[in-house]
Design brief:
single chain; about 290 residues; two-stranded antiparallel sheet; 2 strands; elongated
């Protein structure tokens, strides 16, 4: 019984503490109604504070403030182009006005012509960048040149194939004409030779035509061989080239009596110039 009474007293004490806290909270100043604040407009005090913090007493070069002549008015805030254009116009106006103010203040702000500033990146770094750019440019040029060469090769192969096909067709047509002519020769019916653009005369005429291309019983060299012979010499056999033959011995066309100083044909041999006497003879003569 005593234990139950003790538990009841503890619960009563907890309830009393909570009630006391609630009463204290209700009686606090935060919960009580506050009186309405009165705002007083002290113009003189505000003006004095404004004059104190104002920077108009400083020169413009120390303030560097610029006020736009016209406020920015954007009809549609969602129009990014119109909004950015207004910002650009305002910034341009401020830059022009600021430049004029700096000039009026007599402060130099432009870089002199003979001014050399140290670059952020070193010369070695810039040289590497330049080499890289040159390499890229050369790579592009090489790729374009390779592409052009591939196209030219492709076009050249096409032309070559057309030429080869044309030659094959010509060869085939010539072989067909020759076969037809042979058949007609065997049958004895030559027909109209103009149809083949080939002269089909008798065997004697063919032999005469073939012999006309020969010189001295030998076939004459072609044009290419003749040009090479004229440029580099005839070539061929060299042994005995200076020996006399019957033809060369009997050829007197280049013989000259005067040049050979011969007296066998009635000419008179001229006496040669007297030779100078020797040293011993000259001494005896003295």
């Amino acid at each position: 019984m005593s234990e139950e009474k003790h538990e009841y007293d503890d619960s009563m004490m907890i309830d009393d503490d909570e009630t006391a806290l609630e009463i204290a909270a209700l009686q606090s100043e935060d919960m009580l109604p506050q009186p309405k604040k009165e705002y007083i407009y002290h113009k003189e005090a505000l003006t004095a504070l404004l004059d104190e913090i104002s920077q108009k007493k400083f020169k413009w070069i120390q303030r560097c403030d610029i006020t736009s002549s016209e406020p920015i008015v954007v009809d549609k805030t969602e129009d990014d182009l119109d909004r950015e254009l207004k910002f650009y116009q305002q910034g341009l106006e401020a830059a022009i006005q600021g430049k004029q103010e700096v000039l009026n203040a007599g402060v130099p702000f432009e870089r002199p012509d003979d001014y050399f500033a140290e670059m952020v990146k070193s010369d070695a770094h810039m040289a590497r960048i330049r080499d890289k750019l040159i390499t890229q440019q050369k790579g592009i040029q090489n790729a374009e040149e390779a592409k052009k060469q591939r196209e030219l090769r492709k076009y050249g192969k096409q032309i070559q194939q057309e030429k080869l096909k044309e030659r094959e067709d010509q060869k085939k047509a010539s072989l067909d004409k020759i076969a037809t002519i042979k058949k007609r020769l065997r049958s004895g019916n030559l027909g109209d030779a103009d149809d083949f653009d080939i002269d089909v005369d008798s065997d004697d005429g063919a032999r005469a035509r073939s012999s006309s291309n020969k010189k001295g019983g030998k076939q004459a060299p072609n044009k290419k061989r003749q040009l090479k012979n004229e440029k580099f010499g005839f070539g061929g056999k060299k042994r005995g080239i200076k020996r006399n033959t019957a033809d060369s011995t009997g050829d007197m066309s280049e013989f000259s009596v005067k040049r050979n100083k011969s007296t066998s044909f009635g000419g008179s041999a001229k006496k040669g110039k007297s030779q100078r006497p020797g040293k011993a003879k000259r001494q005896r003569g003295l």
